[in-house]
Write a structure and sequence with these properties.
The protein has about 240 residues and is α+β, with helices and mostly antiparallel strands. About 40% of the residues lie in helices and about 25% in strands. It has 9 helices and 9 strands. Helix 4 packs antiparallel against helix 5 and helix 4 packs across helix 6. The protein is elongated.
């Protein structure tokens, strides 16, 4: 299966391939390559082979990602990336992003769509950040961002060290309920155990993260609406 996946990836990456090039890329014999191509045709892939000079092996037709297995987190990240690009409203190469995002979402299995749909409601996008915020915002280190994302996806409590606007550092335990983007600034809308209320934390001001063993159940949306209200929309 791994070899077949690699073969499909190669066929999709170029307009056509020679059998020699495919054999070298995969490290297989001509006989094995022909058997793999035959099995792919039997599975419904439109693979054509042209003999003679200038010919080659190619995958015809419009083949999307419906045959690509993505993890739960990969699905969320892909849809989020498209939603972010939509929000930036670039005048070039973004006219079809909404339609692409909807097609991608519909291509996933029903069970996966249901889970992703619930997560989409917790990822909010608003206007671009003010010039003041954008000028001081710094992209956090990847390990810190990954810890925050994991706690958000798994509904896991998170201990953080947070640096306020007044440069006061405090240690808190939070429940990361929502992620909010005011490009380029990212925020966590959370339930703060220290203050026993909702709080918004700018991600670049989080200086340390440590996952906690306890998980949390999603609190009623009404407890957070005062923070995002009508200013942001879910992806």
């Amino acid at each position: 299966m791994e070899r077949r996946t690699r073969l499909l990836g190669l066929l999709r990456s170029e307009e056509h391939w020679t059998s020699t090039d495919l054999r070298e890329q995969l490290g297989i014999s001509q006989r094995t390559l022909m058997r793999e191509l035959s099995d792919l045709r039997d599975a419904g892939y439109p693979i054509d082979s042209d003999r003679g000079r200038g010919g080659g092996i190619r995958l015809n037709g419009r083949w999307g990602i419906e045959r690509l297995n993505l993890s739960h987190q990969e699905v969320v990240e892909l849809i989020l990336a498209l939603a972010v690009m939509e929000n930036l409203q670039s005048p070039l190469l973004t006219g079809n992003l909404k339609a692409i995002r909807q097609k991608l979402f519909q291509a996933f299995p029903q069970e996966q769509r249901s889970k992703v749909n619930e997560l989409r409601k917790r990822i909010l996008i608003g206007d671009k950040a003010s010039k003041n915020v954008a000028s001081f915002y710094k992209t956090p280190d990847a390990p810190l961002s990954e810890t925050i994302a994991s706690a958000f996806l798994q509904q896991q409590c998170l201990e953080i060290d947070y640096l306020s606007e007044a440069y006061k550092r405090t240690t808190r335990v939070i429940e990361p309920h929502y992620i909010l983007l005011n490009w380029p600034a990212w925020y966590i809308i959370a339930w703060d155990h220290l203050r026993t209320t909702t709080r918004t934390f700018r991600i670049d001001r989080i200086k340390r993260t440590s996952p906690r063993e306890e998980s949390f159940a999603l609190r009623p949306k009404t407890q957070f609406q005062d923070i995002f209200a009508d200013y942001f929309e879910a992806i």
